What does this fold into?
Amino acid sequence: MSGQTVRSDVGRKGVSDYLGLAANILYGVAGILFLVGLYFDWQHTGQIIIPQFALANEPNANSGLFILSIIILGLGYVVSVLGSKVEEWQTEKVDQTQEWTVDVGDSSKK
It folds into this structure.
């Protein structure tokens, strides 16, 4: 059992749990933006929704949602890695190889 790790404050939600939740929400938002961008680029070719992320102002320009979804996906990954690092920092090593000796003795001798 030597070298096991035990997380401090077991049973309570910490910063790493909230960062993991935030990363999952960002992944979901990125997925929805990707699907909406796919729909708009397929059905409404050339319609630009977010001009800052559109690649071209031509008739076949993308809506800008793909680029935004990739940025949000990258941000979700960074938040996820940060949550893992915070969890590592909160984890403490516990060495359970110590042996305990107890002197029971004889209680009949007084």
